[in-house]
Amino acid sequence: MTTRAATPPPTAPPRSPGAPPRVLAVAGSDPSGGAGVQADLKSIAAADGYGMAALTALTAQNTCGVRDVHVPPPEFLAAQLEALSDDVAIDAVKIGMLAGADVAAVLDAWLRRIPATVPVVLDPVMIATSGDRLLDAAGETAVRGLLSRCDVVTPNLPELAVLLGEPTARDWQAAVGQGVRLAARARLHVVVKGGHLPGDRVPDALVGPDGTVREVEGRRVDTPHTHGTGCSLSAGLATRFVREGDWYRALAGTKAWLTAALAAGADLGVGQGHGPVDHFAAVRTAVHDGGTAPVGGGWQPARAGAGVPG
Ligand SMILES: Nc1ncnc2c1ncn2[C@@H]1O[C@H](COP(=O)(O)OP(=O)(O)O)[C@@H](O)[C@H]1O
Ligand SMILES: Cc1ncc(COP(=O)(O)OP(=O)(O)O)c(N)n1
């Protein structure tokens, strides 16, 4: 592989007020478009950000499962990251699938070279909805090591348990307790997600390193089409944080958007397994209303039966 040393500009220009946040997703590819960098770029765009992507891995997957994973040489991830940061000022980073310890080590080294003020959200992708593993055991240890350069981590309940070395929480109270322990131990914010628990409520919570717990209420969308919800939440969160400057407000806004995207997912008709969410449900509604509906504001179900159960 040949890499060409770029000459960085003296200083990349700061973001002008009102310009879309420049958000980098470091993640794997999902050709079905529901998870991975494809979901990240859609989520960033839906939150009015400018999305960029450095690929850690290529998966051969669809809505039914993961068939194969190809991990390019880790040096090629380094080349992607350096080409980007030599040229572009990055406003936020979202990390998804890392595939293995070597990839995590390359990313860790790069993260420690970019300005410490760049917010970093880590979605510690370990297992897909289909049950397929997306990270090996050495990779789990490496992901724990990355936490010290991250501002927020967004594990689902099994991932939260792995990060702590504890059994998976079976109820919301136990899950929040684990979030408090991880936030204190790793000195960062933890988003605890209720998606894997039963019931009509699907709360999320932002746990601070000082042990503060702030919940965001949510209603369950009764749908099998939840492929990529974790990717979408973390990418949207990173993007909204740049404008909001507050993790709780960014989480609340992202969760409201994602609930509407989940409710509209069935209408997409993508695949025969766990289909994707509709990242652009609000935009689509606006287009079909002849441009009279507020973009990103007043989402309504596209057809009877597709909405959020009351
Ligand atoms: N059926 C659902 N209805 C509403 N929100 C959901 C549903 N499933 C997941 N979510 C939300 O999607 C986001 C991702 O959650 P989760 O499914 O737990 O993570 P992951 O995709 O990493 O397994 C969270 O904000 C969670 O609350
Ligand atoms: C390439 C790739 N990255 C991540 C995932 C997992 O997606 P996530 O949103 O964390 O989880 P699910 O909601 O799909 O479980 C993936 N499948 N592929």
TrEMBL record:
It is an enzyme of class 2 (transferase). Pathway: Cofactor biosynthesis; thiamine diphosphate biosynthesis; 4-amino-2-methyl-5-diphosphomethylpyrimidine from 5-amino-1-(5-phospho-D-ribosyl)imidazole: step 3/3. It catalyses: 4-amino-5-hydroxymethyl-2-methylpyrimidine + ATP = 4-amino-2-methyl-5-(phosphooxymethyl)pyrimidine + ADP + H(+); 4-amino-2-methyl-5-(phosphooxymethyl)pyrimidine + ATP = 4-amino-2-methyl-5-(diphosphooxymethyl)pyrimidine + ADP. Residues 1-31 are annotated as: Disordered. Its EC number is 2.7.1.49, 2.7.4.7. InterPro entries: HMP/HMP-P_kinase_dom, PM/HMP-P_kinase-1, Ribokinase-like. One of its GO terms (molecular function) is phosphomethylpyrimidine kinase activity. Pfam families: Phos_pyr_kin (PF08543). The keyword Transferase applies. The keyword Transferase applies. SUPFAM superfamilies: Ribokinase-like. Gene3D superfamilies: 3.40.1190.20. Keywords: Kinase, Thiamine biosynthesis, Transferase. Residues 7-20 have a biased composition (Pro residues). Residues 30-278 form the Pyridoxamine kinase/Phosphomethylpyrimidine kinase domain. Catalyzes the phosphorylation of hydroxymethylpyrimidine phosphate (HMP-P) to HMP-PP, and of HMP to HMP-P. This is Bifunctional hydroxymethylpyrimidine kinase/phosphomethylpyrimidine kinase. It comes from Isoptericola haloaureus. The lineage of its organism: Bacteria, Bacillati, Actinomycetota, Actinomycetes, Micrococcales. The gene is thiD.
